[in-house]
Write a structure and sequence with these properties.
45% of the residues lie in helices and 8% in strands. The protein is α+β, with helices and mostly antiparallel strands. The strands form three sheets. The protein has a five-stranded mixed sheet with strand order 1-2-8-5-3, sandwiched between helices. It has a three-stranded antiparallel sheet with strand order 4-10-9. A two-stranded antiparallel ribbon has the order 6-7. α11 crosses α13.
Length: 422
């Protein structure tokens, strides 16, 4: 893990590997939970892409400019699979896919097929129906926080008591996971998100065995949930094997709660240190929450490394003296937190301003791989933040913002805890 150092790391856009030892290493040290590393400013100035090291030492390309990030998100020549699996980077991303390479030959077709299967599960109509249930769950969790404080717990941990359980309850209900298993699968998710070591792959395999058993139970007794829908779809799609179904279910469970957990907590912090926006939300939650959520999505960056992609063929970025070729097989990390703070795309990019319009942040990606669960995440953030601040209008941090700490050794980052009082 990179920590603050007394020397400046080398920044290069060259494809030569003559000074790899001096390259910056991910994840970069941060000045606080609401501020990303100032190193990204230097990286943007250095070129359209720059070479960095992953936590285990592999050299990959990092993208920190908005325009290049948006373009590369939509570029079909980048994928999650590696054209030569034995050369894939060693950094673990087992929480998102099985192994470091995936199926290069069939990746695009599989992705299209899976999105077609899953689109109904995350449709706007289904999210509207889910809204009432999310609100019910959020109210119950705030009741629990109030009861804990009334019984003598002060401060209370809003991260553990609200931000973590709300998305977990929701994804359990949406997918059809028994709610009594939520602690078990949360533990597996945390193990899979570790950036180094062998445990992520072990946890991934255990998680897939669990979801395979769950799918078998749905065959015997289907319900009105996503896993039951996928099991039913197997009869019409021979590519949706049991192994593929288990892999897909793990990905949905992992991605369906991890990022929302982290942005709920950081969204609360952003509102607490911007009291004028918080007051507007309290006074008019229905009229202001949508814009607040979009700005939270832009600025609430939980840390971690970001997903690793690979070039399936040579990709040229930049123009003139800045032109760089990402060679076939090279790893690429698109850092949305840096792109979302690019002054060339956002005026006063570091300011928390829900009035900015448009707000074309890249927190859900862009193009054909735009996050299919974006509507679910937005629903949870809208309901969650509005409920917290209307129920607890006197909410305040129990520590200074800079005393909060982030997980820097996890793929998805996130706070350790969020002590609050009111």
């Amino acid at each position: 893990m990179t920590t603050a150092s007394t020397h400046e790391p080398t920044i290069t856009t060259s494809t030569a590997h003559d000074d790899d030892a001096a390259l910056p290493q991910l994840p970069f040290a941060r000045a606080g939970v609401l501020r990303i590393s100032p190193l990204y400013e230097r990286l943007r100035a250095a070129g359209p892409v720059t070479r960095v090291r992953t936590p285990v030492g592999d050299v990959v390309w990092l993208v920190s400019r908005y325009e290049e990030a948006r373009t590369l998100f939509a570029d079909k020549r980048l994928g999650r699979s590696h054209p030569k699996p034995e050369e894939a980077a060693r950094v673990s991303d087992a929480g998102v896919m099985a192994g470091p390479s995936g199926d290069h030959e069939h990746e695009d077709a599989d992705h299209t097929s899976m999105r077609r299967l899953l689109t109904p599960a995350f449709s706007a109509k289904r999210m509207r129906r889910l809204h009432e249930r999310v609100a019910e769950l959020a109210e119950g969790l705030v009741d629990d926080l109030v009861a804990a404080r009334d019984s003598g717990t002060d401060p209370v941990d809003l991260h553990a008591g609200f931000s973590v359980p709300l998305p977990i309850f929701v994804i359990c209900e949406l997918l059809g996971v028994p709610v009594e298993d939520r602690v078990y699968f949360k533990g597996l998710s945390e193990r899979m998100a570790t950036l180094t070591g062998d445990d992520p792959a072990v946890a991934r395999a255990e998680f897939e065995r669990y979801t395979a058993q769950l799918a078998e139970a749905k065959r015997a007794e289907p319900g009105e949930d996503v896993i039951s829908d996928l099991v039913a779809a197997q009869a019409h799609d021979p590519r949706l094997t049991d192994a593929r179904l288990a892999e897909l279910t793990v990905g949905l469970l992992f991605a369906g709660h991890e990022t929302t957990v982290n942005r709920l907590s950081l969204g609360v912090v952003l509102l607490l240190v911007n009291p004028e926006v918080r007051d507007r939300l309290v006074a008019d939650p229905e009229g202001s929450v949508d814009a607040v959520v979009e700005e939270v999505l832009r600025l609430a960056e939980p840390g971690g490394m970001g997903l690793l992609r690979y070039a399936h063929e040579d990709v040229t970025v930049g123009e003139g003296d800045e032109e760089v070729t990402i060679a076939t097989g090279d790893g690429v990390v698109i850092v949305t937190s840096a792109a979302n703070r690019d002054e060339s795309a956002f005026d006063a990019a570091g300011a928390f301003d829900p009035d900015r319009s448009p707000n074309p942040h890249l927190s859900f990606g862009h193009g054909p791989h735009f996050c299919i669960g974006a509507s679910l995440a937005r629903t949870e953030l809208r309901v969650g933040l509005a409920t917290i601040f209307t129920r607890l209008p006197g909410l305040r941090l129990a520590v200074e913002p800079d005393a909060l700490t982030l997980h820097t050794e996890r793929l998805t980052g996130g706070l350790d805890e969020l002590p609050v009082t009111w």
